[in-house]
Amino acid sequence: MNEFEFSDDNKRYHTWNYHLRRKFGCKVMKLALNAGFTCPNIDGTKGYGGCTYCLGGSGDFAGDPAENIIRQFEDIKGMMHNKWKSGKYMPYFQAHTNTYAPAEILRQRFEPALRQSGVIGISIATRADCLKPDVLEYLSELNDRTYLIVELGLQSIFDETGERINRCHTYAEFLEGYNELVKRNINVCVHLIDGLPGESAEMMIESAKAVGELRPHCVKLHLLHILKGTAMAEQLRRGEMRLLGFDEYVDIIIRQLEVIPPQTVIQRLTGDGGRDSLIGPMWSLKKFEVLNAIDKAMAERNTWQGRLLTKASE
């Protein structure tokens, strides 16, 4: 019997869908948009080329930046309704670093999406080192009038990994930005990537444990996938790194979930790229098989999100 508190189905972790249905009473569709921002480790402010897994900026499935935000919103909403007939919407500013501009520019990009019918909130992906005072003030204002989530790409708590992937900011800088958001009562979603070069399974578990101790609103756990044309694709070709296997990944995810508090919402448990651009792991394209394998293995092990934290407190 599954007695996990934050579930009304067979899941043993706190799913994004469960959270949204409890909060808003309906399906909420996240619409990935591209507002045309860049990034400080792409434009030369901190570095060039972006993170080594990145193909010119995050947001593989975001909207077309050649179109305005409203057109992107309508196009992606239409695609979403091919799968779900009804629901509300959350514009997700996904591509690149979406607070890497003065607050007035952010206001011009975000507000049109917020004014669309059926919108219940906004999610903004960024870096923790791109939160200047005027931006924090605007985010605080947004937080007072809508459901706001700021998504921070950490990927790993280890600075040696950060240097290896050209992240161009430290864990200490992440914590500084994270704390600035939390003290304003802004919901934060932290991104971690499993399978980064040089990292052991134990390092990945340690990153999840450290992030869990921060008590973020949400966490995204991503599988590292390699895209054609990235610096990491060349590293893989030269044999300087390897890709995680299916069973290996399932085991790591479960061990990470065990050290994340059950109150923390899990927005993602895997990740993939476009079929035409993906080098590997090719099994990542079978997303439902990955998620089903995680569910099955958690049931077989009789484990759940936060289990080791509960045991430690007994």
Give the mean pLDDT.
93
**Overall form:** globular
Got a strand count?
Answer: 9
Helix content: 25-40%
**DSSP summary: helix tally:** 11
Give the C-alpha Rg: 19 Å
- Strand/helix succession: HEHEHEHEHHEHEEHHEEHH
Strand order of the largest sheet: 1-2-3-4-5-6-8
Percentage of residues in DSSP E strands: 15-25%
Q: Flag low-confidence runs.
A: none
The largest sheet is: 7 strands, parallel
- Helix/strand-derived class? alpha/beta
Distance between the termini: 22 Å
Structure explained in plain terms:
With 314 residues, the protein is of the alpha/beta class. Helix content is 38%, strand content 16%. It has helices at residues 16-24, 69-80, 103-114, 133-145, 159-164, 171-182, 201-213, 231-237, 246-257, 287-301, 307-313; strands spanning 28-33, 88-93, 121-126, 147-155, 187-194, 218-223, 226-227, 265-268, 278-280. The strands form two sheets. It has a seven-stranded parallel beta sheet, sandwiched between helices. A two-stranded antiparallel sheet has the order 7-9. The longest helix has 15 residues, at 287-301. The mean pLDDT is 93.
Detail the topology: elements first, then pairings.
Blueprint: H1 16-24, E1 28-33, H2 69-80, E2 88-93, H3 103-114, E3 121-126, H4 133-145, E4 147-155, H5 159-164, H6 171-182, E5 187-194, H7 201-213, E6 218-223, E7 226-227, H8 231-237, H9 246-257, E8 265-268, E9 278-280, H10 287-301, H11 307-313
Parallel strand pairs: 1-2, 2-3, 3-4, 4-5, 5-6, 6-8
Antiparallel strand pairs: 7-9
